[in-house]
């Protein structure tokens, strides 16, 4: 099912034309109405009339997370505050949050792209959607809420937390879809098992999981534990929230709503655009928003783009799974390590649960990596030799994937702290020194 066929299945040529028109309008709008953008463009010697088509996007300046902090809270708005009907924010690791303002039209775009996502998962107005993303400043809850309402579905706005109640409501009210982070979904899967209620009594068949990186292994795990199809949903506060992209039933890449958010892939070190298919930093320009349009926003997310038509019929560009963030990448003894690489190994092994923590430290000027991972209840054993053999096997696998030898620590089932929102996978003690 396709929510907006003309947009989602447009020919590449028509899409470029539409993107060109929308970019020109957006550039004119920010140049006229947003002082920091006007200044930036003048410094770069580029004027709105220099932008003739989407190909000219490379002439425009980048926007970074730092810009949003520097112009906190309202400096990047391109409309008066009287036009803003909603504020959302994302908490950074330090200091002030990043604040985004939406006009009524921006909220309509958000609902539209959300509707495309949920329709692509096969959801309809007949379905109950349990929204277990947090509600509030975080865009997850309200974004999934608007998406459900847009398709005419029934929203069950549980927000995150209160796990037992989540399971009870999921069962009693017949939730067909669950929208939450993949790590919270795993937590709910365990709780579902503990509840003792037979799985057949649940109507759940779709997961709308995102807000943090996850792997194919994690997908398999979630699908088998919950008896559902688990789909990716991607987004970020600065651009709009969840709904920037979504998977379809093919589960073969995340379609981006590129008629609203124009994607580029650049080399994160040089800022130079990379050809299709290459992995680099994802950059978005919003080309239809009014409240706080952003030009060439550097997401820090690493991925690649595929412009081939999808088997589902959509022509919209597909993004590969997010490998991690440029700033999530750990450099351990000079080797680049992403938590997602560790996760993929862990999910390969049936003896392990996908709950893990990477502890990085520096001992005698040498980096150390400890991988703590939970052993499955069925395999957890007091038998030393069994556990040692398992540890050896995992160490070996990780060594060949990562290129460094971690210290693997097998821990008891359910001992690693669970998250109800985005999971914390890394404890880098070196940063504290
Ligand atoms: O996480 C918006 C969202 C809510 C997306 C619910 C999907 C579902 P932020 O808190 O601003 O917004 O964080 C955005 O989270 O740059 C990625 O690094 C990461 N992220 C979001 N979705 C995915 C995904 C929301 N599907 C940041 N896969 C982004 C991997 C994701 N990473």
Q: Can you give me a brief rundown of this structure?
A:
The chain has 433 residues and is of the alpha/beta class.
Task: Describe this structure as you would to a colleague.
The protein folds into 2 domains: 70-327, Rossmann fold (3-Layer(aba) Sandwich); 332-428, ANL, C-terminal domain (GMP Synthetase, Chain A, domain 3), CATH 3.30.300. The chain contains 11 helices and 21 strands. The protein starts with a helix and ends in a 5-residue tail after the last strand. It is 31% helix and 25% strand. Strands 4-3-5-6-7-8-9-14-13 form a 9-stranded mixed β-sheet. It has a 4-stranded antiparallel β-sheet with strand order 10-11-12-15. Strands 20-19-18-21 form a 4-stranded mixed β-sheet. With 433 residues, it is an alpha/beta fold. It binds 5'-O-[hydroxy(phenylacetyl)phosphoryl]adenosine (DLL). Residues 90, 133, 139-140, 143, 210-213, 232-237, 241-242, 299, 301, 322, 325 line the site of 5'-O-[hydroxy(phenylacetyl)phosphoryl]adenosine. Residues 90, 133, 139-140, 143, 210-213, 232-237, 241-242, 299, 301, 322, 325 line the site of 5'-O-[hydroxy(phenylacetyl)phosphoryl]adenosine (DLL).
